[in-house]
Amino acid sequence: MRVVHAMIGVLFLLGAIVQLNDPDPARWVVLYASACALAALSAAGHALRNLMAPILLLFSVLGSFLIFRNGLETISFAALFGDIEMKTPSVEAWRELLGLLLIGGYSLLVSWSSFRNLR
What we know:
single chain, mainly alpha, 5 helices, 79% helix, globular
C-alpha cells in the first residue's frame, strides 16, 4: 500500500502544480498540497494521517457544499475533459467539484483505514 499512497501523492503534487495556473490558485494549491502531504504521511505510516485525513475530508465536503449551493449548470463530458483552459465558470465549477471529490474520496479511504486499524 505504501507504493499506492506514494503514487497518489505524486498525482496530487501534479494537481497542485497545475493549480498555479488557476484564476484563484492559493486555496487550490494548498488543498492539493495537503492531499499530497496526506498521501506522504500514509505512505510513511505516520500517525499524523489519523488527524489530517478527517480534517481534509471535512474541507472537501464543505467546499463541495459551497459549489452545490452556488448552483451547477449542466455541461457536456467533452467540455469537462476537453480543453485544459477554462471556457466558462460552469466548467470551472465542475472541475473544482471533481477535484474536491477526488481529495475527499481519498481522505475518506485513509480515514476509514486508520479507524479500522485503531480498533
